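pls design
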């Protein structure tokens, strides 16, 4: 192996591996260094997303949803499955198989695109040199014209709830339970907390989510957040807002460990709750441990993220950073897109990224998804906007599928009618919002979407109807606004 590359990428999560593939596609001699090891100790690519994030969480969400449906919904369709049970270890094995399959997929893509895949850790030195330490402890100094830092993020830990990986776990531990905890506590009712709470709640845990903020899903559009809270509460998630965890104590109870959680409630009073397992999901922080030599020239911002400009250039010439380790939402697709932009910039193209249109999804059932501005943001910005909403209960496909909870909310500019945001809780919300994201990329108006022919019967008809409702033209519901 040569020690010189056009591009060295450190980290092979969705930001890093996509950057490496795109750079190689553009003819750049590219290496990608990754320090992750699987359960067997083998070096693997894919980062948080593939190994302990997006993919394994969705595998368990899908398994648990099938169980929940079989147990609670099949009888309504005239299907009697009798007594059913859950085999948690089998579910975990299935999840691990999916992860392994995708790990091999990235290895295959690296090979096909001639990316040099290096397992071990990378450290950025001065002048775009990189120290590579393989898993056997052998060191090599590599050089590159450009270095892309994609070291990702790790779970935030809080002093009142130290993770012991036995009773108190983080999101990674919550993907590895060997049985369904009877009483499950979740600190943080954010994206990850709701997804993991849903997994175990569907399998039978009594789930309590303790959330410090007074509002639910504070960054989402609040019409959709309120509707989502109603639906999730009906499913059995006990979501307690304004509850800040102040302490935990792991105790022995009849030979079994449990955790006593102390928290301050909304009225300021102290309360206690006992759980068999506690998941700490209070957010993630950028990860730069061991990544940067003192003289690397790369600066961090006040939140510990690598400081970058709009094009993901760091403060060191020829050094770029992408994904969770830089500012912006911690989402796999946001990092991947930054990876593509940087690779193309390195290759001399003029690519830019549209940070205004980054979809965001919570994979509860039904899904909660959004793109663009929320009504609260537009209000705060003083924008002139109009809103159209449409409930799934008026969509034939949704009723037929027994998926009629939730709604689509479309927001457009009051004068130009240009779509500014779309927020959905309901069946296939992620895919519906994606349709609107495409429309927004093309500068669509609500009228454009309303005039588009949608197949019938589809869930997506709710998007068309919400777009029509923006201007008082919805067909399958009475319009409150005056028809123009
Ligand atoms: P990471 O995926 O964190 O990858 C960084 C990689 O860099 C790691 O493999 C790490 O080992 C490696 N690395 C770090 N330092 C070094 C070094 N010095 N040398 C070598 N290698 C190094 N996002 C979504 O968009 N959709 C979802 O549904 C979703 N679900 C999630 C569910 C869970 C439970 C969690 C925890 C996260 C989820 N996320 C989801 C977030 C998503 O996983 C992250 O946004 C994404 O993984 C970030 O990608 P990244 O490439 O920036 O970093
Ligand atoms: P997210 O950023 O979507 O992963 O959500 C993390 C959530 O955890 C946020 O809504 C925080 O308000 C919440 N949180 C942080 N610290 C605490 C705490 N000590 N007790 C309860 N909730 C917390």
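designed seq:
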């Amino acid at each position: 192996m040569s020690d010189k590359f056009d591009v060295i990428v450190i980290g092979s999560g969705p930001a890093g591996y996509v950057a490496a593939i795109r750079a190689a596609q553009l003819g750049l001699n590219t290496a990608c260094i990754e320090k992750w090891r699987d359960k067997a100790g083998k070096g693997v690519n894919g980062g948080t997303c593939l190994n302990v994030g997006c993919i394994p969480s969705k595998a368990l969400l899908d398994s648990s949803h099938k169980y929940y449906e079989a147990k609670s919904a099949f009888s309504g369709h005239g299907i009697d499955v009798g007594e059913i049970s859950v085999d948690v270890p089998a579910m975990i094995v299935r999840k691990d198989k999916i992860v392994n399959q995708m790990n091999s997929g990235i290895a295959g893509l690296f090979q096909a695109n001639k990316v040099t895949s290096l397992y071990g850790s990378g450290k950025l030195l001065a002048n775009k040199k990189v120290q590579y330490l393989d898993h056997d402890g052998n060191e090599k100094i590599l050089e590159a014209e450009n270095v892309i830092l994609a070291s990702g993020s790790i779970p935030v830990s809080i002093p009142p709830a130290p993770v012991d990986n036995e009773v108190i776990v983080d999101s990674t531990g919550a993907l590895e339970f060997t049985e369904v905890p009877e009483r499950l506590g979740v600190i943080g009712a954010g994206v990850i907390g709701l997804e993991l709470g849903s997994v175990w709640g569907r399998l039978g845990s009594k789930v309590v989510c303790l959330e410090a903020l007074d509002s639910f899903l504070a960054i989402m559009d609040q019409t959709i957040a309120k509707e989502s809270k109603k639906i999730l509460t009906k499913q059995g998630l006990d979501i307690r807002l304004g509850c800040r965890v102040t302490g935990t104590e792991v105790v022995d109870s009849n030979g079994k460990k449990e955790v006593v959680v102390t928290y301050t409630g909304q009225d300021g009073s102290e309360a206690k709750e006992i759980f068999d397992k506690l998941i700490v999901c209070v957010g993630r922080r950028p990860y730069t441990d061991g990544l940067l030599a003192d003289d690397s020239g790369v600066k961090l911002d006040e939140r510990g993220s690598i400081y970058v400009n709009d094009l993901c250039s760091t403060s060191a010439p020829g050094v770029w950073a992408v994904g969770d380790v830089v500012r912006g939402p911690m989402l796999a697709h946001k990092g991947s897109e930054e990876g593509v932009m940087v690779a193309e910039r390195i290759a001399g193209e003029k690519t830019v990224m549209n940070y205004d249109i980054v979809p965001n999804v919570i994979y509860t059932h039904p899904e909660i998804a959004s793109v663009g501005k929320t009504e609260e943001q537009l209000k705060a910005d003083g924008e002139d906007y109009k809103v159209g909403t449409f409930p799934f209960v008026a969509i034939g496909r949704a009723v037929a599928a027994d998926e009629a909870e939730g709604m689509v909310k479309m927001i457009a500019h009051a004068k130009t009618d240009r779509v500014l945001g779309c927020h959905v809780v309901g069946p296939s919300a992620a895919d519906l919002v994606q349709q609107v994201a495409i429309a927004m990329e093309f500068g669509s108006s609500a009228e454009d979407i309303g005039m588009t022919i949608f197949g019938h019967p589809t869930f997506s008809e709710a998007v068309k109807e919400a777009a029509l409702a923006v201007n008082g033209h919805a067909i399958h519901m009475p319009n409150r606004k005056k028809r123009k």
